[in-house]
Fold:
Amino acid sequence: MHKILRVNLKTLSAAIQEIPESYRLLSGRSLTSRIIYDEVPPLAHPLGPGNRLVFACGLLAGTGLSSAGRLSAGAKSPLTGGIKESNAGGVAAFKMARLGIRAVVVEEQAAKGSWYLLVIDKKGPRLEKADNLATLGVYEKASRLYRQYGPRAGIILIGPAGERLQPAAGITNNDPDGFPARYCGRGGLGAVMGSRGLLAVVLDDSGARPDPPVRKDRFNGRVREVARWIRETPQTAEVFPRYGTAAMLNITNAIGALPTRNFSTGTFEGAAKIDGYAVHDTITGRGGEGTPTHSCMPGCLIRCSNIFPGKDGRAVVSPLEYETIGMMGANCGIDELDAIAVMNRLCNDYGVDTIEVGCALGVAMEAGLLPFGDAAAALRAVEEIGRDTPLGRILASGVATAGRVLGARRIPAVKGQGLPAYDPRGLKGTGVTYATSPMGADHTAGNTVRANVRHDLKEGQVGVSMASQAGATLMDSLGLCLMLGTCLKDREILAGLVSDRFGWDVTLEDFTGVAMETLAMEREFNRRAGITEARDRLPEFFYQEINPACGAVFDIFDEDLGK
Structure:
């Protein structure tokens, strides 16, 4: 798994190269960010020919280790104007690794109006014309690709929003059951993929013969140890498989950090209708194609995904997760799971980030375009994205643009990216992450919700955020799901697994150093792109308006951040 595939859409060529020695320990986020740092001019337009789009798997992808199949996508972001990595579960990273490819680098742009597929199998890579797939929704694109390349193919693709270069567009890949909805949603990277003229990547690992671990017995013993930790930890053995990520809603609602009606408060009176218990009970009560327990990637033992069915028992969407429920539910004053699930499916089909659209809907509601709590009106507004109307384009441009167009003052965004479903006044450590992360407002960059601090007080928040950002970068750089981190009793095992797989002798300190270098490199890229420390701040209203649910403002300032 030591190859980089370079694809040039201008020359319609593809070439496989050996990983440079300087990249030997890099994978996932550390590899996408390093390639962007090395090859993309910081002042390049995100949708121009100077940008790169990079897909990378982790060093432990394609093995029997649980939760090791995250796919990282990286580029200069159309939303933030800085470096961006967004990752997701699914099968793509697993299949990339089995094909011996650690990264795919997409360069240049196809002729205007031309669309292509990148097909990778054991024979190598090739580009194929894909004009017949243009303008189709994600689900129809996936269906046609399955018919052509087989139901077990891995697919990475964009929807119509990505084709239109809309800044809230994401990139998705399919899960083991074929649902094409494991989104690298943040940062507008779907628009970058669309700007290349690339509609999809097809990964066919049938007949592939990946190298076995060099120290097979030791590697397999460590895999079994991680599996034992997963089974012995209540969070990964009981809570996540039963309630999924929606279990988080009960926590944020209790501490006053659940965004409600465009972040005007942190507790939602309708929370019990959309929380983890409600999701579980609705799914199990309806039966049919629904299940509260589902793996988003091959071999995952945590199984925190789900399949949400309609009243007829047929699958509506997979997965229905906390961030979508929080931002399209509580943030919009909506307490109807069925409406949220349908909006989730529509966003998946159009290829837009539910967090960004949920933020934009909340601002549109505050601006008076539609009422808070009106699920039917919200659903109609989301449908406008599919119809490519002016309102649809505004919503698909992200909350920062939507707020400016609508004349709003309370716009929940940092560095141009909408806030996820954690109010920074009730969860101040995560607020520090929003402000200081090179990723912009992104909970996956360093969520502190499980840190042992009083979340509504300023004391200790900077420290827990910095530690959380380092930990998240470590996991992202190894292609590991953050859920796995809740049960790892000794992170040294990660270095042992990598060493045993490849016959190396590396330590956790080596990978911790990679994570810290990655963060420093991302910040330096942003600085060169014009994103200075002056932008390491939350929107003004968080410093001025008390969140009634927790009784606090965000009171961590530049001097607290050491600036």
Remarks:
- Residues 508-528 form the longest helix (21 residues).
